[in-house]
Design goal:
Layout: H1 3-18, H2 21-28, H3 32-46, E1 52-54, E2 57-59, H4 65-87, E3 94-100, H5 102-107, H6 109-114, E4 123-129, E5 143-147, E6 155-170, E7 178-181, H7 189-197, E8 203-207, H8 210-218, E9 224-227, H9 228-232, E10 237-240, E11 247-256, H10 263-277, H11 280-284
Parallel strand pairs: 3-4, 3-5, 7-8
Antiparallel strand pairs: 1-2, 5-11, 6-9, 6-10, 6-11
Length: about 290
């Protein structure tokens, strides 16, 4: 996300901490209208009201407290990025190759990478799109962004947030058939649930890409397990609740352990972590 969106976090958290716009404005050294505008802008992007307004001030209801917690983590990560950039001993320039799945390369990372230019204008980011669990060779990639239960040996990194999954079908259709998760997706938690739960005669076509599985569901052939944000953002699909247990997978931002001391790698990881954490609500399906 862009820097002005990041700055909105300060205003939102100040209101959450103080319980009023006036107190937040005094603490931040700005006027009342600025705080109102920043909070309203944040809520518009979130497409929901974070605060309850009443005569006593602004209150975060219990079911929205997880949003505030996520925002604090984002703010901490932003400060970490600034520390990494200030502490870099080598120029942040040249190329940085980031490998990820087709879902992330098409639907998540382009927006994040577009915001890198303000922080590291001489750093060129290249996306390497593949769903295969390839040997992560630093000669072809510097950073990987992957949903996974744990990091492979020889990598270091951090969890940005969780990726939530649900079951989707085309609106207006009735079906008891399912699309199979194949290739690299066959080792995922949703695929394991399918194997342990569903009769094999109900599983029809399959694919090794969630974006392709979405299109199979769109054309009404059967149900597909998809990341929440992929299914919910397609108006042709409807989510089927309570058919599969809540399923979440960590999203890792990682690199080779022998690159741990590279300021360029650390800065790239830190910026990616911030960008992905800012989409935690979307990706987690909250």
């Amino acid at each position: 996300m862009h820097r002005d969106n990041w700055d909105d976090l300060r205003f939102v958290l100040a209101v959450a901490d103080s319980g009023s716009v006036s107190a937040a404005a005094r603490n931040l050294g700005v006027n009342h209208a600025t705080v109102l505008r920043r909070v309203a802008g944040f809520e518009d992007r979130l497409n929901t009201a974070l605060f309850e307004r009443n005569a006593k001030g602004y209150r975060v209801p219990p079911d929205r407290m997880q949003v505030v917690t996520a925002l604090r983590e984002v703010q901490d990560s932003i400060l970490a990025v600034e520390r990494v950039l200030k502490g870099a001993t080598e120029p942040l320039r040249g190329e940085l190759n980031v490998t990820s799945t087709d879902t992330f390369c098409q639907k998540v990372l382009p927006e994040i990478i577009a915001g890198f230019s303000d922080q590291a204008p001489d750093l060129r980011i290249n996306l390497v799109c593949t769903n295969a669990h390839v040997d992560f060779d630093r000669l072809s990639a510097d950073i990987t962004v992957r949903p996974a239960g744990q990091l492979a040996d020889g990598l270091f990194g951090d969890v940005a947030c969780n990726l939530g999954f649900g079951v989707f079908k085309r609106k207006g259709t009735e079906t008891n058939r399912w699309h199979d998760l194949q290739g690299p997706l066959a080792g995922s938690l949703p695929a394991k649930w399918m194997r342990e739960t569903l009769p094999t005669d109900q599983i029809i076509q399959g694919a090794d890409s969630f974006l392709v599985l979405k299109e199979l569901a769109v054309f009404g052939a059967g149900m597909s397990i998809l990341p929440h944000f992929i299914g919910r953002e397609d108006p042709r699909l409807i989510e089927i609740p309570d058919i599969m247990p809540d399923t979440n997978i960590d999203i890792w931002v990682a690199s080779h352990s022998d690159l741990k001391n590279s300021p360029r790698i650390r800065a790239g990881q830190a910026m990616l972590l911030v960008g992905i954490k800012q989409q935690a609500l979307r990706l987690g399906g909250l």
